[in-house]
Design brief:
disordered N terminus; mainly alpha; disordered C terminus; Serine Threonine Protein Phosphatase 5, Tetratricopeptide repeat; 12 helices
Length: 218
Amino acid sequence: MRSRNCKAPRDSIRKLSEGETDDAVAQLQSATRLNPLPEYQWVLAEALRKAGRESEALSIEQLLAQTGAANDPRTYALYLATRGQLPQIAIRLAESELKERADVFTHDALAWSFAAAGRIDDALPQLEGALAEGTHDARLFFHAAVIHAKAGHTEEASHFVNLATELMRLLLPSEREQLQLVARAVDHELAQRPGPAMGPTAFNKTGHRSPEEEQTNR
């Protein structure tokens, strides 16, 4: 049985957020050799891409496509939905996983998969289940921001953008980019409304997070 060290992906994601890309790649390559599982392969592909090593990132993603559904269906469903690939397969994997472990993270995976397929009405109840226990998690908040934005729930989206931004260092580079896009869209929507202007989301107070904000949240 393969060992699983969940600390490795978290440390590597933190390194990526702090610009320590080469260290993150080396750490993830070692971790992936020991644990060739989607949670490691996904982060490694992102790290390689950030390092400009596109061909190596594609090779890891090809391996992930071959083995991800069997090795870790929930993480692979999240990966597919985040990449906007094969949403129906992501839904099928997440629905099957929900029968085995109906925890907040599986509800989140199914909500995110529904959202990737454009099924926002189906995503919202699953998102409610994902948030039901008050779990403080960057990815949950990020997904909630995107899903509420797609549902036209601008205030709720703004709320979750702010929560996700506080934990942004724990998101993958591609997730951080998506968070920035939804934050800008939410701010634009709020700015178009009549009446007293609401302040921008935390992400867009200055267009980026200040060094002081980053330091506070490390």
